[in-house]
Design goal:
The complex is a heterotrimer. Chain A is mostly helical. Chain A has helices spanning about 15-25, 40-45, 50-65, 85-105, 110-130, and strands spanning about 35, 65-70, 75. Chain A is about 60% helix and about 10% strand. In chain A, strands 1-3-2 form a three-stranded antiparallel beta sheet. The radius of gyration of chain B is 21 Å and the shape is elongated. Classes of the chains: A mainly alpha, B alpha/beta, C mainly alpha. Chains B and C meet through helix 2, strand 5 and helix 3 of B and helix 1 and helix 4 of C.
Chain lengths: ~130, ~300, ~325
């Protein structure tokens, strides 16, 4: 069961944070296909946030095909979520990543600096994504 | 859109000051709407008018289509109110307060009210005066919710509450909204309190409505543009400037974006809800209101 | 709403009941205690043959005289209390603590709220006042006849006493509604009640109807039964023109001198005056006007109470 948390200061809209947390959980194996998400009421009670926000997040997840909602039963992780990366794809991505890490080291960034830059880029991309949604 | 509260041209005068002046707005049902504005902006006056405690000197207000002063029985049966400072009879017990609600309201759900307070560990035979501020707030909320209203109005419900009590109050509020789907309007002059819990916003400034809109949309539609110092605002595109600040070398404009993009020499930054609210409050002439809609309310 | 009225004011109700019970107990004990001596006085004073009447009266005064004044004062003060403790806080406290916002946003209009509160508390107060008025009446008739005038008991009994109480209550409610704060409203009740009661009692009441001036009948000026004597008797000639007191005293001496100091009970001093061409005129309100005067004073205070309650209702409505 995935428990949500909220970073009120990040500037990222609440519903997007919820969506991201579900996405990450499916990627890193915390959630598997068929797992049930907390009901909207449970999330509201846990985080003290607006119910419409939770519904918005779940609706977005459903439109992305990540979850399926069954009236009366709950919201479940959909079958056929992306499998872990194929080895060939992983190698390709690693090559690009290793080269970027070398550039970042030359520019003077340490590990924390690189992770911070990555988070910043992801956050900005998510905020832009909110406008499109 | 179903309308919970509809106000047109509301006005109210106290001595020589207008608490509300030509105030018009529509609050949608099924949402938690935040009512924000500086002290003395007219938030309390508006809420009291909605529940029929005050008669407008000018204009009209209706709640679910009924007039609070013209049809008080109908309105009071559907509208719950938690007044400023959450007043209660201090010599009463918690159980007495519920009895008060039961005797004075045509519709009353005693079991639900008792269950709610039991979940919060608030005993029915405790005197109000012996409860903590947070517990008293929960009793006020339980009283207002006991008649199973369709609209709940709260006037600065979190004032004088410690952070934990504030969180617990909000939690209780959103839980009942999730369960019952009632509409809520709550006022505050602290934006951060509202942001977590509201999805709709009204900015009242100087007795007038300055902004009405969905919170996510408002945040998305406003940007901070930073660029070299300009004496005239030449932004390009069709953005409207809400607030402009100039330093020696730099101008910063908080704008509402239009359909077309702004000029390329501006840095575009996102803004928080608090920044949007502060910008409007600081510039009473600016306004963002929904376009007139050709539809019947209700 | 009746439940709420009881629950909010049960302490005051209990307090009022206790006060009334205490007064009834005190008056009751006094009435019981004086009966033997009263019998004695009635017996000894019906035909005055020796000084037993006088001695019995003195005994009464020395045994029970100390209670009369304080009890009288208590009855004068009691009507202020409902205005002070029940009327003044009724609306003022709600405004002060902001609970009006809470209670008038339940499913009840402020008109109904006020109506039920006034009806319940007003009737309860009236009943308590009625009990006190009966106690006052019992007490005031438990004194020797010739020191009793129904007019002395005007302020402590009868429908007018109930009217004083209702007026005080209404004054408190109106002051609370107008001022919006409990303590100043209490002060207003105190001052207002004292001023109005004194003004009516001292200045209006003697003139409800023009007083009568005539000779008192009866050989020893025992008065017109239970008339309300006003001012001193006026010596006059037979046409009604005032004569000097010296002249009148001379005539009286001339009439009494031949008797040598002992005046028989059937001596007609008045006939002697007439022979000398003088008479004694007294201004008074006749005994039979007593119920009428009670009615007038009752009406004044009841109408004032109704007007004040109307004012309070208007002020409460205007608060919107």
């Amino acid at each position: 069961m995935l428990h949500f948390h909220l970073d009120a200061r990040s500037g990222v809209p609440t519903y997007i944070q919820l969506v991201n947390q579900v996405r990450r959980a499916t990627r890193n194996g915390t959630l598997h296909a068929g797992d049930r998400l907390l009901t909207a009421r449970e999330v509201v009670a846990a985080l003290a946030i607006n119910p419409n926000t939770v519904l918005k997040a779940y609706t977005q997840l459903e439109s992305e095909g990540l979850v399926i909602s069954r009236p009366g039963l709950g919201t479940f992780i959909a079958q056929g979520i992306p499998a872990p990366l194929a080895p060939a794809l992983q190698r390709q991505l690693r090559r690009g990543l290793d080269s970027w890490i070398r550039s970042a080291e030359i520019a003077g960034l340490d590990r924390e600096g690189m992770l911070a830059l990555i988070n910043l880029a992801m956050d900005e991309k998510d905020k832009k994504g909110a406008h499109v949604a | 859109m179903s309308v919970a509260l509809n106000a047109t041209g509301l006005g109210k005068q106290y001595r020589n000051r207008w608490a509300l002046r030509d105030c018009s707005l529509r609050v949608p049902s099924g949402r938690i709407t935040g009512l924000v504005g500086p002290n003395g902006a007219g938030k309390t006056t508006l809420l009291r008018m909605a529940v029929g405690l005050i008669k407008p000197a000018a204009g009209e207000i209706s709640v679910f289509g009924w007039s609070p002063t013209g049809q008080p029985a109908l309105v009071l049966a559907r509208v719950g109110f938690v007044p400023q400072d959450r007043p209660l009879y201090r010599r009463f017990t918690v159980g007495d307060i519920l009895q008060l609600g039961r005797h004075l309201n045509p519709r009353w759900d005693q079991a639900a009210a008792v269950a709610r307070l039991a979940r919060l560990d608030i005993g029915l035979n405790r005197k109000i005066a012996h409860l903590s501020g947070g517990q008293q707030a929960q009793v006020s909320l339980a009283l207002a919710l006991g008649k199973r209203p369709d609209l709940l109005l709260l006037d600065e419900p979190l004032s004088n509450l410690d952070p934990l009590a504030r969180r617990e109050f909000m939690r209780a509020l959103v839980e009942v909204v999730a369960a019952e789907g009632l509409s809520v309007i709550l006022s505050s002059h602290v934006v951060a309190e509202l942001e977590r819990v509201c999805d709709h916003l009204v900015i009242l400034n100087g007795g007038r409505v300055q902004v009405v809109g969905d919170i996510d949309e408002l945040v998305a539609l406003h940007k901070l543009l930073i660029g070299p110092r300009l004496d005239a605002a030449v932004i390009g595109g069709d953005a409207t400037v809400v607030q402009a600040t100039h330093t020696e070398h730099q101008s910063a404009m908080l704008v509402k974006v239009g359909a077309h993009p702004v000029g390329a020499d501006w840095e575009v930054h996102d803004v928080s809800l608090e920044e949007v609210v502060l910008a409007y409050l600081g510039n009473p002439a600016a306004a963002t209101l929904p376009a007139p809609v050709m539809e019947k309310a209700g | 709403m009746i439940w709420l009225t009881w629950r909010q004011h049960r302490l005051e109700g209990l307090g009022t009941a206790v006060v009334v019970a205490v007064v009834v107990l005190v008056v009751g004990s006094l009435v019981v205690a004086v009966q033997p001596l009263l019998e004695q006085i009635r017996h000894a004073c019906s035909i005055v043959v020796d000084d037993s009447c006088g001695r019995a009266l003195i005994a009464f005064q020395s045994r029970f005289g100390m209670f009369q004044q304080p009890l009288y004062l208590a009855f004068l003060v009691l009507p202020v209390l409902p205005g002070f403790f029940i009327g003044a806080p009724l609306i003022a406290r709600e405004f002060e603590q902001g609970t009006d916002q809470m209670v008038w946003s339940q499913g009840i209009t402020r008109r109904r709220w006020l109506l039920v509160k006034l009806a319940v508390l007003g009737s309860a107060t009236a009943v308590m006042a009625g009990i006190l008025a009966l106690a006052g009446q019992e007490w005031s008739t438990s004194v020797p006849d010739n020191s009793y005038s129904q007019w002395f008991a005007f302020d402590v009994q009868g429908p007018e006493f109930v009217a004083y109480v209702l007026f005080s209550f209404a004054l408190g409610v109106a002051a609370g509604a107008a001022i919006g704060r409990t303590v100043p409203a209490m002060a207003a009740v105190l001052v207002g009640f004292v001023v109005v009661r004194t003004a009516i009692g001292l200045f209006a009441r003697p003139n409800f109807l023009p007083p009568v001036e005539s000779e008192l009948s009866g050989p020893l000026f025992s008065g017109q039964g239970q008339a309300w004597m006003m001012g001193n008797p006026r010596p006059a000639d037979l046409h009604g023109n005032t004569v000097g007191t010296d002249q009148f005293d001379q005539v009286t001496n001339a009439c009494l001198h031949p008797l040598g100091g002992v005046v028989p009970g059937n001596f007609d001093l008045q006939a002697c005056w007439h022979e000398h061409g003088v008479k004694l005129l007294q201004t008074y309100q006749p005994a039979e006007r007593f119920p009428l005067f009670q009615g007038i004073e009752t009406a004044i205070f009841v109408i004032a109470a109704i007007a004040l309650l109307g004012l309070a209702a208007w002020l409460v409505g205007r608060r919107a």
